[in-house]
Amino acid sequence: MSAVLSSVAALLAGVGLMLCGNGLQAVLVAVRATDAGFGTVVTGLLGSGYYAGFVLGCLLGPHLIRRAGHIRTFAAVAALAAAVALSFPQYVHPAPWIVLRGGTGFCFAIVFMVIESWLNEQATSRTRGTVLSLYTIVTLVAITVGQMLLGVETGNPMTAFTWIAVMICLAVLPIAMTRTAAPPVPQVVRLRLGRLVATSPVGAAACLVVGISNAAFWSLGPVFAQARGFDAATVALFMSVGVLGGAVGQWPLGRLSDRIDRRWTIVISGVGTAAAGIALLAVGALPAEAVLGLIFCYGAFSLPLYALALAHTFDQVQAGEFVETSSGLLLIYAIGAVAGPVPASLLMVHLGPQTLFAFVAVVTLALAAFTLYRMGRRARAPAESRPGFVPLQPATHGVVGLDPRAPEAPAVEAPTGKG
Prior knowledge:
Elements: H1 2-35, H2 40-68, H3 70-87, H4 94-122, H5 128-148, H6 160-177, H7 193-199, H8 201-227, H9 232-257, H10 262-279, H11 288-302, H12 305-314, H13 322-339, H14 341-351, H15 355-375
Helix pairs in contact: 1-2, 1-4, 1-5, 1-6, 1-8, 2-3, 2-4, 2-8, 2-13, 2-14, 3-4, 3-6, 5-9, 7-8, 8-9, 8-12, 8-13, 8-14, 8-15, 9-10, 9-11, 10-11, 10-12, 10-15, 14-15
């Protein structure tokens, strides 16, 4: 264990600092946009802008890595991400903020690509599960800490952007000074979305729904909490409790999915998410403690859904198609994430902030219904061909290479769109 930790400690420290800054920025941008009077629809567009940049980063990142290598690419995009963070208080206007959020998404897509492919290079078939668990823990803790930092902000409300830039810059130090060898030049992975959808309609649909619902939650959840009357500290707590709920819900649903048809756990996840969302429609009549309890339940059912979709899809494909499949699912997720915040924000404007979770309830119930329909058309994969569940978060395809189900292989390139 100590040998595994020492080999990836610098990488985990770097990604932890980056995600701490990104966790704070995600909540801060939504809160400050509301304070500046941007409106709920514009706040939704800020979320879409982030994921549009994320998609672009997935497509262009491999070319940058091939050109400059992992360490220099990480340093370059970290510098750009810090500059973007410092630019927010300089241009307090919807149009530049949408562009800046796109820049942040672009940078972090490449950051994840660098870190995860590097971790994959360090891991072996015997240590991938441990490395993945460490990475998942660091990810969730860093995002939670970053969100909670919103509650300790004092003075000028825009100074928190400076702290975001500081954390991003500090993240370069452990990466630049590590003795761990960088991965070799990545290879090309083809992207065949039509074939993927035909192979696993439920997996593809689930990733699309996760993108739609998660992006709406991350972009507009702080707006919902502010409308409930929460102060900055409680808004941060609200979002963090949802993340912690997701961490708690990963293992029970994952272990259950190893014992029954995984599609049943996707149905359970979708129905549970919808139930928590419907309960949050009564947010105005609920005490703060009840709202926090419901958002914990929401996270416990909604955040594991991506991993369940991934595991179900891998039941349907061959080992040699592992990376191609995960790349396609990521892109489907990102497409949903671009689209999700806009209709959710329009509903919030016209029908009230509580309709954010009504929107999520509708799309997750639709997923549950579609899954039940597909279960009547196709039997589950044979038990002996079903790999075990591993908890994953939708960042980039590289993290899937850490999954102990993945074959031994060098780091690979993200989808270029030319396959």
